[in-house]
């Protein structure tokens, strides 16, 4: 494959309160290197607020796809850690670039990008990649300890607070206008309304989630299960993946912190328990299978007027 001569610049800043301006610093230094070496810049791919422990990320994947199409013969980075802090991800990246015949250059680490078949070069890059990952793991460990300390003291551990709350001096306090919406949702569900009816009413009245989006089944589901609304703070209930993101479907951690009366309650416990009971009952009902095979009179008799394909049958499950 004949490659287009030129460079892609890859930059990244992390989620650990790093200054977003670091992207501009990285790109500027990479541009200067390209100018000094008479290499045209063919594209800039910057991933913002993204952990270096992730194997993949949006802009990185776009860049790699362009490289696979034969565009650019060089990838310029600020340093190894700005590309990856995960050792295996770094070497997977290096292996693919080597197979494509693409060079990688670090503007602050000239030892990066040499032939990895040379044991000395491999040891150099491997050692740097190892220390990058150790640094990331240590930083995560310190952050987790800080979050657990905050949780034990009933403090908000970060992120956007649930609808109905605001953060004041590190603690959750009721935001009454939003709290009225939360009470409305809980009472409507407890009284027998379906997800569909509740969502329709909220959207009809122009009511939005904390992030300003229209309500959907997922946002309603998360709200109705949230124990913060009865004053219970839970931290560590969802385990973390290797890249630092929460695995909400994983097995609960053994070191869960659960503190009652950690925040002011918006929902009465009786209402909350009634909602949990109904959620549980509906979940059991939806988990069952039809008692017998269903007959579909139009199966095999309805066809698309354009492509002449048979129309398929889909089953819609009931709502919580």
Give a short synopsis of this structure.
It contains 9 helices and 8 strands.
Main attributes of the structure:
alpha/beta; two-stranded antiparallel sheet; disordered C terminus; 9 helices; 4-stranded parallel beta sheet
How would you characterize the overall build of this protein?
This protein has helices spanning 22-36, 58-68, 80-83, 87-100, 119-152, 176-190, 195-204, 217-225, 269-287; strands spanning 7-12, 41-47, 74-77, 103-106, 165-168, 171-174, 233-235, 257-259. It is an alpha/beta fold and 320 residues long. The strands form three sheets. It has a four-stranded parallel β-sheet, sandwiched between helices.
User: How confident is the prediction overall: mean pLDDT?
Assistant: 84
Total DSSP helices: 9
Describe the sheet with the most strands: 4 strands, parallel
Order of helices and strands: EHEHEHHEHEEHHHEEH
Percent of residues in helical segments?
40-55%
Strand content is: 5-15%
| Global geometry | elongated
Secondary structure topology:
Layout: E1 7-12, H1 22-36, E2 41-47, H2 58-68, E3 74-77, H3 80-83, H4 87-100, E4 103-106, H5 119-152, E5 165-168, E6 171-174, H6 176-190, H7 195-204, H8 217-225, E7 233-235, E8 257-259, H9 269-287
Parallel strand pairs: 1-2, 1-3, 3-4
Antiparallel strand pairs: 5-6, 7-8
Helix pairs in contact: 6-9
């Amino acid at each position: 494959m004949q490659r287009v001569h030129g460079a892609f610049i890859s930059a990244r800043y992390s989620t650990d309160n790093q200054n977003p301006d670091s992207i501009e610093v990285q790109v500027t230094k990479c541009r200067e290197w390209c100018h000094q070496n008479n290499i045209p810049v063919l594209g800039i791919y910057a991933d913002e607020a993204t952990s270096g422990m992730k194997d993949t990320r949006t802009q990185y994947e776009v860049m790699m796809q362009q490289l696979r199409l034969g565009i650019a013969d060089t990838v310029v980075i600020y340093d190894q850690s700005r590309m990856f802090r995960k050792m295996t991800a770094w070497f997977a990246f290096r292996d693919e670039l080597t197979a494509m015949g693409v060079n990688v250059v670090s503007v602050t680490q000239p030892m990066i990008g040499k032939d990895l078949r040379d044991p000395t070069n491999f040891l150099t890059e491997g050692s740097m990649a190892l220390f990058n990952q150790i640094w990331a793991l240590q930083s995560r460990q310190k952050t987790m300890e800080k979050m657990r300390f905050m949780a034990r003291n009933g403090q908000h551990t970060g992120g956007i607070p649930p609808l109905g709350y605001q953060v004041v001096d590190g603690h959750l306090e009721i935001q009454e206008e939003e709290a009225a919406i939360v009470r409305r949702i809980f009472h409507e569900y407890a009284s027998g309304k379906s997800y569909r009816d509740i969502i329709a009413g909220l959207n009809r009245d122009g009511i939005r989630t904390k992030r300003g989006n229209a309500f959907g089944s997922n946002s309603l589901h998360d709200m109705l299960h949230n124990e913060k609304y009865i004053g219970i703070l839970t931290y560590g209930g969802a385990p973390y993946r290797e890249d630092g993101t929460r695995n909400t479907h994983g097995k609960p951690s053994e070191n869960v912190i659960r503190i009652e009366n950690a925040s002011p309650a918006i929902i009465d416990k009786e209402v909350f328990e009634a909602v949990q009971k109904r959620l549980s009952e509906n979940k059991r009902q939806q988990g069952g299978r039809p008692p017998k095979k269903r007959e579909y009179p139009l199966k095999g008799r309805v066809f698309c007027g354009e492509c002449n394909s048979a129309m398929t049958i889909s089953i819609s499950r009931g709502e919580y």
